[in-house]
């Protein structure tokens, strides 16, 4: 009597863990009892994938099982049901080819009618796999629909929340750290440097994180402006939309400058013709006493080296500084006056938005108390949601403090004492971008 080396494979997915007959212990017990009932079978190993979908091919213990099959350590693989093995026809067929090449069979203990030794049996298995895959896809769609509904209701489905928020009654609510989140956005918007922001977080706030984590969890996180997925009213906003958008613009700048020199206007200059960012470079001249003078310049990234733009002017950093020092205060005063006139005309839509949200909440009470039908609830809710979506978003009030602070400065005197990094931070506090045309004309866009 030949001995058959049998491997037990057990898999549970998170959405089916609690279903009767699908727990790890139950599957393992069923398979061990099957081996014990056969005189010629010995247990070669147990392979368990916990919380892994049957639609995935990359599973830890499953991959180890296939390695052992290739090494000739397994003659037969058993599991309780076919859907514990696979729920994807393509992955099943690919794996079956590996098993056949290594003379390894499989058996579903609770479904002995599956037989891969005949053409009809293999066709039946393939057909069953097709239905299993369809069922898995339908399950996925149903789960996704439930999640989408909960997201639309502003519910939190994860315990991980952004800095500055807590979970209250399944919804995000600002907490005592909301000010920290706002400060991080403001600091980055002023300095424009991820490295400088990370250093500030660690030294001054005791927060340690990588660049990727800073961008993903904070600076690019739309929850800070109240939005998530397709819901623009997912949670209360902590960050003004204008500040958030400013940060996104800074993050999107992807022109790498020479890191050996600290450019004052890095990330602020744009071509008035093609919209590309200007990149910095330096030219050097020898000093009589030895060493070099270094002079920074800027050029359109669309013109050099790509030659896709007509703006091939080379602009010295010093000429931009002279223009700003001579004109900034006058331009800022005009900017403030224009903003204050425009602000007086803005309509406040907050009260209407709050009223609509209250009406939507009241609909549920009316339905529960049998005052309206489900059809009426859906109809009225759709009407209110449409009106809510059509309401213009209020413009966030600009923070004019940095501008007014600069206007009070003796700018010419102070500017001479600043190093390039400090000068860059100064301009970033009030300037969104500077557009330069092919005649070296400058247009300042303030924050």
Q: DSSP helix count? A: 15
Sequence of secondary-structure elements: EHEHEHHEHEEHHHHEEEEHHHHHHEE
Kindly state the percentage of residues in helix: 40-55%
- Tell me what portion of residues adopts beta-strand conformation: 15-25%
Count of β-strands: 12
Largest sheet, in brief, is:
4 strands, parallel
Shape descriptor: extended
Radius of gyration: 32 Å
Class derived from helix and strand content:
alpha/beta
Question: Order of strands side by side in the largest beta sheet?
Answer: 2-1-3-4
Mean model confidence by pLDDT: 80
Q: What low-confidence regions span 5 or more consecutive residues with pLDDT below 50?
A: 17-21, 254-258
| Ends apart, CA distance between termini | 85 Å
Keywords: DNA integration, DNA recombination, DNA-binding
GO biological process, one term: DNA integration
InterPro entries: DNA_bind_recomb_sf, DNA_bind_recombinase_dom, Recombinase_CS, Resolv_N, Resolvase-like_N_sf, SSR_resolvase, Zn_ribbon_recom_dom
GO molecular function, one term: DNA binding
Set out the fold topology.
Layout: E1 4-12, H1 24-36, E2 41-50, H2 60-70, E3 76-79, H3 82-85, H4 89-101, E4 105-108, H5 119-152, E5 165-168, E6 171-174, H6 178-191, H7 194-205, H8 211-219, H9 241-252, E7 269-271, E8 278-286, E9 292-300, E10 315-316, H10 317-343, H11 350-368, H12 374-390, H13 401-407, H14 411-417, H15 420-428, E11 431-436, E12 442-446
Parallel strand pairs: 1-2, 1-3, 3-4, 7-11
Antiparallel strand pairs: 5-6, 8-9, 9-10, 11-12
Helix pairs in contact: 6-7, 6-9, 11-12
Could you please describe the fold and organization of this structure?
The chain has 15 helices and twelve strands. The chain is of the alpha/beta class. The longest helix has 34 residues, at 119-152. It is extended, with a radius of gyration of 32 Å. InterPro entries: DNA_bind_recomb_sf, DNA_bind_recombinase_dom, Recombinase_CS, Resolv_N, Resolvase-like_N_sf, SSR_resolvase, Zn_ribbon_recom_dom. Residues 5-154 form the Resolvase/invertase-type recombinase catalytic domain. This is Recombinase family protein.
